[in-house]
Amino acid sequence: MRLLGTYAIAIGLSAFLIFAVQPLMTKLMLPYLGGGAAVWNTAVMFFQGMLLLGYVYAHVGHHWLGARGQVWVHMLLVTLAVASLPLGLHATGVFTPQNAPISWSLVVLGASVGLPFFVLSANASLLQFWFAHSGHEMAENPYPLYAVSNAASLIALLSFPFVIEPFFGLQELQQYWSQSFVAFALLLVAVSLSVLWRMKQYPVARQEVAWSASWTQRIHWLGLAAIPSSLMLGITTYITTDLAAVPLFWVIPLALYLLSYVLAFAGLPWLYRLGQWLFMPLLLVNVLALLYFQSVNYVALVLQIISFFVIALVCHGRLAETSPKAEKLTEFYLWLAVGGFVGGVFNALLAPVLFNDVYEYLAMLWVACWLYPFYRDNRDYNFSNRDWLYGVCAGLALFAVAKAFPTITQPYQQTVNALFEVIRINPMFVCLAATLMFCMWKVRHSRPRSAAVLLIAILAMMYVKNDRPTLIKERNFFGVSKVHFDARQQSFSYLHGTTLHGQQSVIPEQRLLLTTYYPPVLEIKNSLQDNARKAPMAIAGLGVGTLACAADQGQQVDFFEINPHALQIARDKGVFTYLRDCPGKAQVIMGDARLEIEKRAENYYGLMVLDAYNSDSLPMHLLTQEATRIYMNKMTRNGVLAFHISNRHMDLAPIIGDIAESLGFTAYVKAFAPEGPGATSAQYVVVARNYDAVRALVQQHEGWKRVKPDNRRVWTDDFSNILQALNFFR
Known about the structure:
The chain has 730 residues and is an alpha/beta fold. 58% of the residues lie in helices and 10% in strands. It has 24 helices and 12 strands. Strands 7-6-5-8-9-11-10-12 form an 8-stranded mixed sheet, sandwiched between helices. β8 (605-610), α22 and β9 (635-644) form a beta-alpha-beta unit. α1 packs antiparallel against α3 (101-132) and α1 (2-29) packs across α4 (143-164). The longest helix has 46 residues, at 38-83.
């Protein structure tokens, strides 16, 4: 048992390090990529690719190197990995975060953590193979070590947002991870020497590469691994697009993904059968929730997470049922890694090219539905030619329906919208959903692919509801940008994800009015002292350029924007005209707002509006003590920072209050009710060096209150804790 315990510790430690470094490295990259939701998908794809390379090395290394040769090579690799420490972010000049964010991310991750992660990724599979040939009494069944690996991974993921991140800074975490890797390396060397000694007693002959499974079975394994991987990234994008790209929202779906692996390989067949029974009803509930709820809320979030977990449990349970004997485990793990990597590539690379909206999550739900017989049939993996043809035709039909609906439904748009409004408020909708669930449950026992047809119809309904009328829709690394025309308000609206980023009326006398969240900026600006009011303005976040109309004639207004699609929509699409027609002299500076503001001259701006926190993916690096100090250094003596913090999910005022107090500044907050055409409710926090800079604002306008700090740990570049800001935890 001592030998088994040593292997378990080595495998568990390597798994812990694998899943602790993923959110750590991704968080380190966020400031360079604008804090976007796609950063995590790209990072996961990289780590899945490295995991695949590690499994390939573990599977074929024995054939190339022999048993003893592979042990020596592995010790050499871990030594080189230790030499590449300490852990850090090594930037590159080959690509830039703005022009090639995906390429930049992959190169930086490879240079920063590639070799250590490769060694760790090969470790679990390799040690299980060595244990299977160790002569130990339990050597014929090394799969409990796989459960140890997944359990350690799960502990690492859950520890990061709830235990590690709230108490340790990024520099400390990099140092502790590096030290832990050195400890792992020493343990691995000890295990390797033990393996070499045991090989003298239990010689392992050089073997041919064990490609024993049929191609249909390999594809079966690949598909069952790819579906949960893609759904995991899809639901992460669904969450972080509206909330924040932070480890808490990264690790919850990934932790459930790993938990499904743990439970599936824990020998609990009743749980797998329960998942099969719940699979189709929950799939339908999932899609109906996406149809009913137009943005992230806690009810929709819980429904999505539960259905995702059940789908992952069923897929992984099927993998456990079809797992081979111990001597073939490296090939089995290899195809699981291929499937996970395929799912990551689909979400991170292919989906942004194939789709102009976040449809990959819905598409994978449809694939999961269509492949349902895979999860039920324990004897045969084969599809008939007709089945494959059916699937291809159904997929093409879904694509054609999505493309055709904007044209088909245009003449009936008002009727369609009215119908959906009735559905949303009618209690009979609940009865309809229950009836459809029952029908789906019946269908799955006879003609499962008929369920896919029903799902296509529901997805088509979602497309009609969400997209009408859409004039512009574009997608890139930074998200989905849409422009709508509202016939009732006679205005164009720009949405990034589900968040409104600007609106402009087509009525001539209202054309250049400040709309949506921005009328309060006039109250702030007009209350400034003369030298600050007449100085240039800085706006972090372009939107549609609305705040160019808050400036006086010829006054300099510098907009800072990282998303090139936002600039194209605000300036080049012929829809919004603020940048062209407003009295302010607008200049748009592309790049991360904090990095670009730092390049400006000191004592230059009189008013700086930080418009990056309004219920979209929260860029944490723009809201730290160091960032605030940079902003204030660029302000005139009586200049004011105005943080626009309207947010559906977070209360950022106490966070800003803590930062201001730590720097010796003063902060006031006010919630504004909508006033005037196109205005919406908004909340602003103003920060100034002293009370004199905001005296006129506070005394002449009601509602401004001194921000009460939480007196918690101040957010810095090295430390931030999203739990402090979420309304759910306050």
